[in-house]
Here is the input.
Amino acid sequence: MPLKTYRTKTTAWGRFPVVEGQMLRSERLEAATENATLCRGLGRSYGDSVLPAKPEDLIVDASLADRILAFDQESGVLRAEAGLSLLELNRLWLRRGWFTPVSPGTQYVTLGGMVASDVHGKNHHVDGCFGEHVTALKLRVADGRIVECSDTHEPELFRATIGGMGLTGHILEVEFRMKRIPSPWIWEESERIADLDRMVAGLKDAAEQWPMTVGWLDCLARGPSLGRGILMKGRWAEPDEAPGKPPAWKRRFRVPCEFPAIALNKASMKAFNLAYYYKHYQPRLRRIVHPDSFFYPLDMLDQWNLVYGRRGFTQYQCVLPHAYDNGPARRFLQMFVASGGMGFLCVIKDCGPEGKGMLSFPRPGVSIAMDFPVHPEKTRVLIDRLNELVLAEGGRIYLTKDALTRAEHFRAMEHRLDAFNAVRRRWDPEGRIRSAQSVRLLGDRI
Amino acid sequence: MKAVILGATQGMGRAVARLLAERGARLFLLGRDGEQLARSARDLEIRGAEGKVQIVRCDLLDTATFTPALDAATAELGAFDTVIVTSAMFATQEELEADPELAAKLLLADFTNTVVFCEEARRRLLAAGGGTLCVFSSVAGERGRKPVLLYGAAKAGLSRYLEGLDHKFRAEGLKTVCVKPGFIHTSMTAGLKPPPFAGQPSAVAPLVVRAIDRGTPEIYVPPAWRRVMWVIRNLPRRVMRRAKF
Here is the structure.
């Protein structure tokens, strides 16, 4: 029987924008992608990177294609269909002593999505992006052929697909190297940090000794306490430190419905940020924690995106090159606060070297990510100003989070775009594969 | 446990097979598409199924495939103790009304041929001294309803058959488990508007496995559908004539 497509309104995690398109959801990804415009996974990217450019475009939901096809006990190389979620991977492999080489901040992502976004995690300064650990990919390219690519076979297609937002071909299978872990628990040290200088210095120092680091920022603090927050450092616990039993399934809570717009205001955000900061009243904490609390604190709250109400929200994430002082990060935060930006959550992380992904986001520098609700007029203006600043500092933005950047800003930030588009044109001369985002930013035609 | 599963490559069958594999069950897969079966077999092996997961072609629309498929399962597993059937055809009422050929096929697959398959499986389970036959019917068979008129009629027949089977053979050691799913988010229901109490396969599968372990003759999944269907079964005709569900 032919697979059934259906027309629906679709959106991603930010719930902005909402776009109409054709969808198809099937376990049989190879068959499903035959006439597809784009594939999507669990929809945890924030903006329009998984949305159709026009209502006739067919978007394939790959999340049901989640079979594991091979696993090598010796090398840890695992091959699976692209829809396998990190949640399932962790559930099965943590207790066997293996973990994904790189993990983003949520488990609700698919392997295909992790490749397309070339996700980075708390260990970026040591292990780079997910793409560094991918050994091979199986794609359905635009002309319908199925192509296997790797560092040695079709390397150009391989490098363009890593971080290529699914625009080079539909990712069918992912093969990557898992990492051995001494125990499934995390040894965490967290520190309260009084200002931005100390935060950046703290990240830099921690990077020398810790395989995983990240900072949370109180993004409403200003003046001398601009950039204050909590610095978290972690490593896998050794067997003699860890509890004898594997981590239990953590109970989740669910946001029951869309919050009214009024719920998220300056006062509530301030209260949240203050509470988060002062909850960590000890100057320094050392403890063994559940891997879910360390890697995926927000996953404990199902549908947390509903907190932002009907209009939805966006995340702004950029990376600013290192400077001899912390000028870029400071100017960025000052600009954000001065523009009346209100962030709910703000995360800071120092990035290591650029990886092999042709259009991958991370580069050496400081990455800052913040969530804020979408306001019909104000948000676009705010993002324009932030982008101008990032451009002036020589930084770049993360496509996976973006919904509102202007094409001219993106092109000015991305000197790599022409090379990336050249590879795409070679594999997809007619421009069949596209997304709302690729039309908005990458110059794709409808 | 030695289980034969018809329909393990997709939807609920996939979720149930995975749970059994994680417990180290021996599995044998029946289905239409050899390539899909082979992929699912590998997935189940890596997840912990005992030994090699063997596969054989078996199509609900082709009764001639039933005996050879179950013969192959017997040859591979020896006597098996569990047979699970999750395969079925599905189409919306509009599609079935528009295409009488499709409707005839669906009625054949979801009632007649499923029963024929179950009869074959029943004989083998009884010959081996008993076991469990778990078959997926549907809440659609609980009441004549406008949006699931034809599909529901086939499922109603299947549910009755399974009920009778349980009455007749439980004393001889054959436990029949009739699973009645409400709305579950699978590729079968993709694009349909989910009603309240819709469930996920991974959340529902453990309930099905528990019912198989206990030999529960009838189970609604998600469980809330037991009450929902009680209400719908008891609505007067004049309400059902007007109702859209």
Summary: The mean pLDDT of chain A is 95. The interface with chain B takes residues 4-6, 8, 23-28, 61, 64, 67-71, 81, 92 of chain A (CB under 8 Å). Residues 207 and 440 of chain A are 37 Å apart (CA to CA).
